[in-house]
Amino acid sequence: MKSLRSAIMPFLTLPLAACGAGAIVPPSTQIQPPPGPPASAFMKQGPLLGSDARHLTQMFGTPRLDIRETTVRKLQFANGRCVLDAYLYAPARGKEPVVTHVDARSPAGVDVDPAACATALQAK
Description:
Blueprint: H1 2-17, H2 53-60, E1 65-68, E2 73-78, E3 83-89, E4 98-105, H3 114-123
Antiparallel strand pairs: 1-2, 2-3, 3-4
Keywords: Signal
Signal peptide: 1-20
């Protein structure tokens, strides 16, 4: 019986060994991940997609928010009927950022159709 227990014990501890922490790499030696695919890889059909910031401000006026980060720019337009967030990414290095994603919601936070929101924003 003792030899059977000795033979089984290594197999019972294998699942626990998988739970152990891996090696910790000091921050100075961490490798930066490669840049993601260009924004053009995510382009879909829909309202406002492919528009630049100038075109959006011509359509809706001055944005309520204009947030710029390293790789993305978020423009938010709103009126009493809806809030529209447009996310702009450059399709290639050195190119003008364009809309690749749009979210729209009511002032209460309920999702609404982005095309309907865009129409409501233009109606002012």
